[in-house]
Amino acid sequence: MDHDALTRFWEQARTSAGLGRIAVITGTSSAMALPPPAVSFGRDPDEADAALAQVLAGTRTATSTARRAYEAADLALPRHGDLAILLDGAGAPRALLRTTGVRVVALSEVDDGHARAEGAASLTSWHADQGATLAEDALATEPAGGPRATAADLPVVLETFEVVHPRHRRAPVREPVRV
User: Fold this and answer.
1) Phi-psi region of 23 (alpha: psi -120 to 50; beta: other; left: phi over 0)
2) CB-based burial of residue 16 (10 Å sphere; 0-12 exposed, 13-18 middle, 19+ buried)?
3) Which terminal Cβ of the chain has fewer Cβ within 10 Å, N or C?
């Protein structure tokens, strides 16, 4: 990841999203001066690019992560209002996302609405693809010696988001010309 490109993207995105206005009154806070975390969706560059295309098209507004992944990385769970920079498969910043909702459920409790918000055709296809990947990753990092969880019981963090940059602009509605 190119840190200079990330900083340039953050400057442009926060201005475009109107996130820097308060700095005129209060000064720049460290939260606004530093770029938010940069992430990509998917396990490889092709998956990251495909997920990015869905996000930019507005057909993907959610993601999911095994709770164990946050614990293993010693990271706090996302919260409503958190920002993240979405990277493409080459690691270039492409979108600024804002978290709009977070819930933790058992893998077996993921619903059709969330599966479709992640861009899946159905809950069944989500479980076959994303659900299986989450279970595989979580079970692989489970501590040895403790009770083994079943895949269905694994806690999953379901996050919904909105794209705050780039903003999609609709063409202006033009009044018909009367002659």
Assistant:
1) alpha
2) middle
3) C
Record the tokens describing residue 106, joined without a space.
Answer: 């058992």
Instruction: Count other C-beta atoms under 10 Å from residue 127's C-beta.
Output: 19
Q: Tens of pLDDT along 65-114?
A: 999 999 988 999 999 999 999 999 999 999 999 999 999 999 999 999 99
Structure-token match 């990509």, residue found: 40
Please tell me the pTM assigned to this model. 0.81
* C-beta of residue 134 within 8 angstroms of C-beta of residue 156: yes
CA-closest candidate to residue 164, choices 25, 36, 34: 36
DSSP SS3 for 38: strand
Alpha-carbon distance of 154 to 106, in angstroms, equals 5
Map residue 74 onto helix, strand or coil. coil
